[in-house]
Amino acid sequence: MKKQVISVILSAAMAAGMLAGSVVSVSAEATGKVYLLNFKPESDEAWQELAAAYTDETGVEVNVLTAAAGTYSDTLKSEMAKSEAPTIFNIGNTAAAQTWDEYTLDLADSELYSHLTDKSLSIVYNDKVAAVANCYECYGIIYNKTILSDYCTLDGAVVADPSEITSLDTLVAVAEDINSRIDEINDEFGYELTEAFASAGLDDGSSWRFSGHLANMPLYYEFKDDGADLVAGEPEIKGTYLDNYKKVWDMYVGTSAADPKTLNSGALNAEMELGMGEAVFYQNGDWEFAALTNPDNGYLVEAEDLDMMPIYFGVDDENEGLCVGTENYWAVNAKAPQEDIDATLEFLNWVITSDTGREAITDKMGLSAPFDTFTDDFASKNAFAASAAQLMADGKTSVAWSFNATPNVDTWRKDVVTALTAYTDGTGEWDAVVTAFVDGWAEQWKLAEEAAE
Amino acid sequence: MEKAIKKYWPLFVLPTFAAFVIGFIVPFAYGIFLSFCKFTTVVDWKWTGLENYTKIFFVNRKLDTTFLHSLWYTALFTVVTVVIINVVAFTIAMLLTKGIRGTNLFRTVFFLPNLIGGIVLSYIWLMIFNSVLQHFSKTIVSTEWYAFWGMVIVVSWQQIGYMMIIYIAGIQNIPGELIEAARIDGASPAQLLKSVTLPLLMPTITVCTFLSLTNGFKLFDQNLALTGGNPGRLSQLLALNIYDTMYGKTGWEGVGQAKAVIFFILVAVISIIQNRLTTSKEVQQ
Questions:
Q1: Chain A: residue nearest B130 by CA?
Q2: In B, residues 192-231, which contact A (CB 8 Å cutoff)?
Q3: What's this model's pTM, rounded to 2 decimal places?
Q4: Is B10 an 8 Å CB contact of chain A?
Q5: Number of domains in chain B
Q6: Range of the domain at B17
Q7: I want to staple A167 with a disulfide (CB 3.0 to 4.6 A). Which of A88, A206, A317, B80 is the partner?
Q8: What DSSP element (H or E) covers A283?
């Protein structure tokens, strides 16, 4: 009796297994499928719509899954382990290309790559085009043009027009002057200004602006001096321009109303400070445009108040443009079945060539896409992106996103932020920042190399 | 009936056993296996032997103390929280079994914090701490000790109510005649506590210390939300340290896994010892 029962159960289990197996094989034999693991939570809805539109048009199944903010690498690791792994995934930099080297398909012959206007907006790793940028972004110092122009009309203002700020020294002088004349400016023009620079928060939600974006400046100029690849970097750095980094950082902290000892509290909101007209300057990127101008946020600034200037660094100020680059690259899963790969490449091509796809990228997601198909109606409407384009047209050199070369990004940045926090709240020395920056770089680079073996 | 159970027990055990194997045994064994491998996804591994384990302590041939630091930091944290939680929970439980007015209200209020999730709770406390510390130009992550006591306060606040309920149940289980007999024999309140209440409460104490001990070692949510391991990695408890290793460095998934295995062994050994110690003090009524 016992044996009978067990054998019945076992055969039932076997039958179920066969059934499941056959179902899977049937669906796989049909046409290829596309599975996009999306990086940007804010564009989830637009991608879902786009996927549905593509399925309606061609009958090809497109799944889009969006990882929650800050969990992309966790999600990617677990999704990739599944039998139906993502066919398109996001990699952010060369280090990620290294991690996912076995999974990235060479895109050199793809139509997607052929449409890319600036070939430097792709990641080349292990002799293959591992990933292609799907948008590019720029960052610099966002400033409130209206307040700054009003300041310029004051007696004894350092500059007569915002456009005269073309070097770090001038910027420092202006910021210090504004910060010391807050009451005068408020009385004169009726603002509620509290500081020149918005707070430089050192909590985990904001410190990347300095350990990533600002740290890019000394890295970029050093790579440039050494003739190294500007986004792939080099194993050891000397920290030649860290004095400039210190000068900029001191300006951020010194001309802000935030207490330098509590910058890591997480209670500061720099975006709000600029949005409410409490601050004139705010180092961040063009992705802030949507948030600053979104009426739901209730900010006082309007689109026409906003402009962006380069992070003047005291090295090559007259030729410096905004920092232009991206952390959003599409990679195609080389381990997916061939029919899925074909379907995926076709889908990506459709996204950047069809009207539906281009409209979704430009209007719904608000991105600036680096493909030759995005012209006229599909050009970006972001004012900061326009400033970047204007500066480029004026013959300025865009600063590359050299921080993409950072080895073991999270670890390295954390060490730099720790030292920077100690320096800023007075418990540590600047030398510790230099050590974390320079020695930490070499150490993490070595570890990352080792891990790649 | 009994005969039928004897005959068919494998059938009844099977579903739970299968779930236990799938949900626990297999991932556990696989996890141990992976700690000896280099891997990016769990199905894609390469055997590397003990390399992951040496990397825990030696990075670039230099001694790396982050893991050791979070080890003793966690141990200290656990000791402090176990003591505070159990002493306070027991005291409140004693007070709330004396039949004072509003006992039920008090019990409910003390238990409430336990119903809020760790992440939410920590964010709320983060605001409270920082708005107070702001007056002294400090934040909760100014030094590792601010972070330490911050976490102790949050975790104690959260768990005292829970342990209190267990203690109350234990205290109410003590037969009234035993206490009455002790009183008639002239026992003072202190003697009553030491010789009657505490020995009879040992099973409850075993449960409560076990729970607070393992909770202390495994703490993750509150650590992540309240301090995020800052300043630097100085306030990382073990679980967060493992998480940080796993996701913070390229190619270090295996090292994180190796740390997790050590972590498991440690928690298992300590809780077995604790269980032996307190169980041996339990008395028969």
A1: A265
A2: 228, 230-231
A3: 0.79
A4: yes
A5: 2
A6: 2-53
A7: A317
A8: strand A281-285
Please tell me which of the candidates B7, B41, B127 has its beta carbon nearest to residue A81.
Answer: B41
Residue A439 lies in a domain: yes
- DSSP secondary structure of A300-344: S--GGGEEEE----SSSGGGEEEEEE-S-EEEEBTTS-HHHHHHH
Q: Are residues B18 and B145 in the same domain?
A: no
What's the domain range around A37?
7-135+326-374
Assess if residue B111 is contained within a domain.
Answer: yes
**Same domain? B184 vs B164:** yes
Is A3 touching B (CB cutoff 8 A)?
no
Q: Select from B138, B230, B249 the Cβ nearest to the Cβ of A447.
A: B249
Distance CA B37, CA B55 (A): 12
Find chain A residues with C-beta within 8 A of B253's C-beta.
77
Q: Do B130 and A266 touch (CB under 8 A)?
A: yes
Burial label for A363, CB within 10 Å (0-12, 13-18, 19+), is middle
Please indicate, yes or no, whether residues A296 and A348 belong to a single structural domain of this protein. no
Per-residue pLDDT tens digits of chain A, which is 453 residues long: 556 656 556 555 555 544 444 444 444 445 789 999 999 888 888 899 999 999 999 999 999 999 887 778 888 988 998 888 999 999 988 878 888 999 999 999 999 999 987 777 788 888 899 999 988 889 999 999 999 999 999 988 999 999 999 999 999 999 999 999 999 999 999 999 999 999 999 988 899 999 999 999 999 999 999 988 888 889 999 999 999 999 999 999 999 999 999 898 888 899 999 999 999 999 999 888 888 988 888 999 988 899 999 999 999 998 898 998 888 899 999 999 999 999 999 999 999 999 999 988 888 887 888 888 887 778 777 888 888 878 877 888 889 899 988 988 888 999 999 999 999 999 999 999 999 999 999 999 998 888 776
Q: How many domains does chain A have?
A: 2
Q: Is residue B89 part of a domain?
A: yes
Of all residues in chain B, the one with the smallest CA distance to A6 is: B11
Distance from CA of B126 to the nearest CA of A (A): 9
What secondary structure does DSSP assign to B5-42, as a single string?
Answer: HHHHHHHHHHHHHHHHIIIIIHHHHHHHHHTTEEESST
Question: Domain for residue B246, yes or no?
Answer: yes
A26 touching chain B per CB within 8 A: no
Across the interface, which of A6, A100, A408 has its CB nearest the CB of B249? A408
Helix (H), strand (E) counts: chain A: 18, 11
| CA-angle at B123, arms to B120 and B129, nearest 5° | 140
